[in-house]
UniProtKB/TrEMBL annotation:
Name of protein: Lysosomal membrane ascorbate-dependent ferrireductase CYB561A3
EC id: 7.2.1.3
Cofactor: heme b
Quaternary structure and interacting proteins, as annotated: Homodimer.
GO molecular function: metal ion binding; transmembrane ascorbate ferrireductase activity
Species: Glareola pratincola
Keyword Ribonucleoprotein found: no
Predominant cellular place of this UniProt entry's protein: membrane
Chain's role: Transmembrane reductase that uses ascorbate as an electron donor in the cytoplasm and transfers electrons across membranes to reduce iron cations Fe(3+) into Fe(2+) in the lumen of the late endosome and lysosome. Reduced iron can then be extruded from the late endosome and lysosome to the cytoplasm by divalent metal-specific transporters. It is therefore most probably involved in endosomal and lysosomal cellular iron homeostasis.
Gene3D superfamilies linked: 1.20.120.1770
GO cellular component terms, semicolon-separated: late endosome membrane; lysosomal membrane
Topological relation to the membrane, as annotated: Multi-pass membrane protein
UniProtKB keywords: Electron transport, Endosome, Glycoprotein, Heme, Iron, Lysosome, Membrane, Metal-binding, Oxidoreductase, Translocase, Transmembrane, Transmembrane helix, Transport
Amino acid sequence: MLDLPFLPFCFFLGGLGFVCVAFVSAWCQRWRGGFAWDGSAQMFNWHPVLMVTGMVVLYGAAALVYRLPPAWRGPKFPWKVLHGALALAAFVLAVLGLVAVFRFHNDHGTPNMYSLHSWLGLATVLLFSCQWVAGFSAFLLPWAPTWLRALYKPVHVFFGSTILMLSMASCVSGINEKLFFSLKNGTTEYKLLPAEAVFANTLGLLILLFGVLVLGALARPSWKRPDADSPDSCQVPAPLWGHAGSR
């Protein structure tokens, strides 16, 4: 793999995350009628915006907290708090996104939980809630023994990446489902690839690119905290802008 410096990559990834949020917001504002919180179709529009912002962008940011070079030295506790806070913010946004879609369905007599997208999305949020509670109990509460933390840590890391992949799949399937439902009359049919379809398909690709880059960053050995199990690591982090060799 290319030996890339972390911080330029991090800035690029942050910009890409902002673009994802901007795209989903513009899609809902420009083609889907904007936003409201009254049970209308405009309330539904909060669902994709909150899910992309929370379960993809904020969740991806939370996953990369320990890759920041300043996190490589000193106490880990502040970084644990930041990691947990970002994940909690992502979860709150996801819950609000679920409230928006369930209320819209209930107010319009639309059945809940019948599509693959809905099954996948709800399973992702439920798994995420279990992951957050387990991580909080194991890594932030003082009574968790060291052996339990060591035992649970690889499980936590595995499910962290799994949840991000499930979030990407949920978002992409949701975008496609919304386009099939919305673009089905006259000259706006999805198969004719109108401007909305091109824009939303591009959004799906951006989400996938963001998620793949986060997973790639998590997999790079040279970007991992050198002494991950020590509460006070004194190792010097790799240069912020230049060469970041393996340790």
